[in-house]
């Protein structure tokens, strides 16, 4: 989920995208496909974890990791629905396409940060901290932290670019 979401967002980055020479339309379609795949992975993971907890008689969604994970999956579903509206902007008659894109990017950043928070909370679990120790734990924790900074920078740069082009 985290990998697919990160790649889907970086598609629009002029510095890091493997598809920077492709048209915006191609980038949007690849973004859409990767985000949908990320959502399917999240739903599959949620289903497997829920089933495993059911088999072992454990409570569901009682940890911060479980709650933020559930919220992330629900948010990602809503974000995918909102992204679908961007494919058909005429359905949103009272909104400009530029505003829709800005709101989608901003709310996508919130969802991405929520997913990273869930991932980091999972790394604080008893199982993870006993399985991954010393410097490895810190390196694992750095991954979502650094990717969050990269994605936040990308979204803020896109926002600033739009602001400058409006003046």
UniProtKB/TrEMBL annotation:
SMART domains: B561. One of its GO terms (cellular component) is membrane. Its cofactor is heme b. GO terms for molecular function: metal ion binding; transmembrane ascorbate ferrireductase activity; transmembrane monodehydroascorbate reductase activity. Keywords: Electron transport, Heme, Iron, Membrane, Metal-binding, Transmembrane, Transmembrane helix, Transport. The chain crosses the membrane at residues 30-51, 63-88, 109-129, 135-155. It is found in: Membrane. CDD domains: Cyt_b561_CYB561D2_like. It holds the Pfam family Cytochrom_B561. Residues 1-162 form the Cytochrome b561 domain. Its EC number is 7.2.1.3. InterPro entries: CYB561D1/2, Cyt_b561/ferric_Rdtase_TM. It is a multi-pass membrane protein. Its main location: membrane. This is ascorbate ferrireductase (transmembrane). It comes from Podiceps cristatus.
């Amino acid at each position: 989920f985290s990998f697919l979401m990160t790649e889907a967002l970086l598609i629009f980055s002029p510095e890091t995208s493997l598809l920077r020479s492709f048209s915006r339309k191609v980038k949007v379609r690849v973004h859409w496909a990767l985000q949908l795949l990320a959502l399917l992975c999240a739903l599959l993971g949620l289903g497997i974890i829920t089933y495993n907890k059911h088999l072992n008689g454990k409570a569901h969604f009682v940890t911060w990791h479980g709650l933020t994970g559930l919220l992330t999956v629900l948010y990602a579903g809503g974000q995918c629905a909102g992204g679908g509206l961007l494919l058909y902007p005429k359905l949103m008659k009272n909104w400009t396409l530029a505003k829709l894109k800005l709101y989608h990017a901003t709310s996508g950043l919130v969802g991405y940060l929520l997913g990273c928070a869930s991932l980091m909370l999972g790394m604080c679990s008893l199982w993870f901290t006993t399985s991954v120790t010393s410097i490895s734990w810190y390196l694992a924790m750095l991954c979502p932290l650094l990717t969050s900074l990269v994605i936040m920078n990308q979204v803020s740069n896109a926002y600033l670019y739009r602001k400058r082009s409006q003046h």
